[in-house]
């Protein structure tokens, strides 16, 4: 089976590399000089596991029809990728891996619902220099049907294939799983704003508590909109929602749990990685999705709105904020109400 991985960033490089290591026929589509280094020297993957170098093919542009495609570009880049490769991907099963909750529909609008397999990525990966990615594979991916409450044979086949590279779970409620991952991805904003790792953010008392407030605001907005979350491996939806509904001082409990869950390998998050590479971030599809949903149902989302504005400020200026500056920016807004 010929597998095209469209988007040779952190997630795409890890999935493509590990599938190639498992013996699959993989072609990785990305930017130069990453592509050149992969072809000349192989892909280096390091992190929590042993350092490995994997030989695989890479190209700046896909020019052959694959049997399966993994869409691993960022959400904001997905429409352009779908437009560029729509002819080659017609009738081909595509695995949609993006963060947020909109990418499945984006792909379906171009390629048809029947060809879309949803995939929620749970492992952490970092790509900051061409030819090398860092990965923590303590968790893998969740695969499911984005438009039906069932698992069909095609999706099981895709899950079995991905299982040759990473741990795979099947989700009966993929949209709910995407919303749960979006709540977890609330942890991306403050590292992007401050320039530090997740561990750095959780080491600061104010930023750690603010992260929990962001997540709680998201959970409250989902609840108000009647949207359910689905459990992910290691993250029961009911437990996440219950913890984030705790009153004021007791929210230090989930904050402490978050701090302990980060491990020792620095977690930069996809949003901060984009800023460091000088490309646009997906914040509008993370915190911005909560803001959009809140506006639709008439619910204020001041903290998520602040995160969207501050990330765009860092994108525009290239200057990160200190924890004190973040606090000043939050306090300067019109008395945000704790969700």
| Largest sheet report | 8 strands, mixed
Secondary-structure-derived class = alpha/beta
Question: How far is the N terminus from the C terminus?
Answer: 49 Å
Strand order of the largest sheet: 5-2-1-6-7-8-11-12
Question: CATH fold name of the largest domain, please?
Answer: Rossmann fold
Q: In oligomeric terms, what are we looking at?
A: single chain
Count, helices: 15
Give the domain tally.
2
Residues in helices, as a percent range: 40-55%
CATH architecture of the largest domain: 3-Layer(aba) Sandwich
Strand content: 15-25%
Précis, in short:
The protein has 339 residues and is of the alpha/beta class. Helix content is 47%, strand content 16%. The relative contact order is 0.12.
Blueprint of the fold:
Elements: E1 2-6, H1 10-21, E2 25-29, H2 34-41, E3 43-47, E4 52-54, E5 57-59, E6 68-71, H3 78-89, E7 94-96, H4 103-111, E8 116-121, E9 124-129, E10 132-136, E11 141-144, H5 153-162, E12 168-171, H6 174-184, H7 189-194, H8 198-203, H9 205-225, H10 237-244, H11 252-261, H12 269-277, H13 287-297, H14 302-317, H15 323-331
Helix pairs in contact: 3-4, 9-11, 9-13, 13-14
Structural features, described:
The protein folds into 2 domains: 2-172, 3-Layer(aba) Sandwich (Rossmann fold), CATH 3.40.50.720; 179-331, Orthogonal Bundle (N-(1-d-carboxylethyl)-l-norvaline Dehydrogenase, domain 2), CATH 1.10.1040.10. Helix 3 packs parallel to helix 4 (103-111). An 8-stranded mixed beta sheet has the order 5-2-1-6-7-8-11-12, sandwiched between helices. It has a 4-stranded mixed beta sheet with strand order 4-3-10-9. The protein has helices spanning 10-21, 34-41, 78-89, 103-111, 153-162, 174-184, 189-194, 198-203, 205-225, 237-244, 252-261, 269-277, 287-297, 302-317, 323-331, and strands at residues 2-6, 25-29, 43-47, 52-54, 57-59, 68-71, 94-96, 116-121, 124-129, 132-136, 141-144, 168-171. The protein has 339 residues and is of the alpha/beta class.
